[in-house]
Amino acid sequence: MNRLSALVIAGFIALGPAQAAVEKIVPDQQTMVEFSYAPLIKKVAPAVVNIYTKRIIRQSRQSPFSGSIFEQFFGDRFSFGSPEERVQSALGSGVIVGADGVVVTNRHVIAGADEIIVALSDRRQFKAEVILEDERSDLAVLRINTKGELLPTLAFRDSDSVEVGDIVFAIGNPFGVGQTVTSGIVSGVAVSDIGVSYYESFIQTDAAINPGNSGGALVGLDGTLFGINTVILSRSGGSHGVGFAIPSNLVARVVESALTDGKIIRPWFGASGQTVTSDIAESLGLDRPRGVMLNAVHDKGPADRAGLEVGDVILTLMGRDITDPKALASRLAAQPVGGNAEVVVLRGDDQMTMQVPLEAAPEDPPANETTLDAAHPLGGATIANLSPALAEELQLPTMTKGVIVKDIVRGSKAHRFRLRPGDIIAKVNDRNLGSVAEMDAYWGSYDDEIRVTIMRGGRTLSARIQ
What we know:
- The chain is of the alpha+beta class.
- The chain has 5 domains: 3-35, no CATH class; 45-144, Thrombin, subunit H, CATH 2.40.10.10; 159-260, Beta Barrel (Thrombin, subunit H), CATH 2.40.10.10; 271-357, Pdz3 Domain; 370-465, Roll (Pdz3 Domain).
- The chain has helices at residues 3-14, 38-44, 69-74, 107-110, 248-260, 278-284, 302-306, 325-333, 388-393, 413-416, 436-444; strands at residues 48-59, 84-98, 102-106, 115-119, 125-134, 139-144, 167-172, 180-191, 202-205, 217-220, 225-232, 243-247, 271-275, 292-297, 313-317, 320-321, 340-347, 350-357, 370-371, 381-385, 403-408, 424-428, 431-432, 450-456, 459-465.
- The protein is globular and about 95 Å long.
- A hairpin with a 2-residue loop joins strand 24 and strand 25.
- Strands 19, 20, 21, 22, 23, 24 and 25 form a 7-stranded antiparallel sheet that branches. A 6-stranded antiparallel beta barrel has the order 1-2-3-6-5-4. Strands 7-8-9-12-11-10 form a 6-stranded antiparallel beta barrel.
- It has 11 helices and 25 strands.
């Protein structure tokens, strides 16, 4: 035991009911006062990079009649010359996770960029290509050509082992001032319902994260990657001690998908549910609100085949507590396709364990993509059957049913009807619509007015066609 340890222990022993005075000793050795994280930061910082992006914005030259009555009648047809171009720059951070030049960052850091530059900690710069962008997780995987040189990397930590109170360091490029390190602790785990991405099960930290830190590393005392810093809660735009990182398990899954399949194939649960509120918990006889109560189960989907039913409450998945639907979706998204996921379910007074197959969303029914001819009341629209696979591709909830509008011919009947790509035709004259064939059949059975129910961006719209 060294002298410092003895002093610390002695200090605790001396504290008793009588609160005896502890003798204060002036440090007489350099090692007694020198505590630093510098050796750790020197080891991990070279694996964190700065990312600079450029995007060319093209816009028409301003008309001399801009703002006048002529513009109201003639629009911008009197704009002169070729379109003006301006360069929009942005900055962020990234983490080297492959020694051959594989870098992971936030998708929002590089989205829409015409040029991406990765700057290493030694100030060398490389042009980067995008291997994979994943909007749902807000992650992107890049590659730089190192010409065979191996780069320093950060190893992934099992983010399920991260606990509140763990000391962490946020490394990135805030405000473009260069690589910066801030420290703090993990102040929350599995934090969801923030409203910034589809998959939300964040690690929360009070380590300062500022604009430009996005895509940077959240590192633990063991030098491993806890997560990718992605968002802050702030009223001023600066750090208020509430920052969030995407957990490393989800990051690792996206990186693995990028390097193997070149795309992400996620497990499909085949069920949807709602957060168990205090009222629901009381009605179910639960001691506290917890879990997700299923309100829909897809026929013959993985959940259905595992024996799950509407009304079941999912308490845990893979041994981890489930607090809400986003937490359930995030934990599933971190799993590879293949094998089973163990879920603990409450049904009535019984608690049971079930095995749900981890499999990709099926293309059932097949898309049957069809362009409606000019004689059709919605002529000019290209529609398709909405299968779980297509819903996943279009970033829609995989339980969504109906006919999806994929394209619209400008000036067509569908265009004049104000139908939009991405609209889901859910009902025709109050009859649920499940396929393109059903839409044709329903449409042909009515000679008079037709009522159409459309789902758009979470809203339900109704319209009439004469």
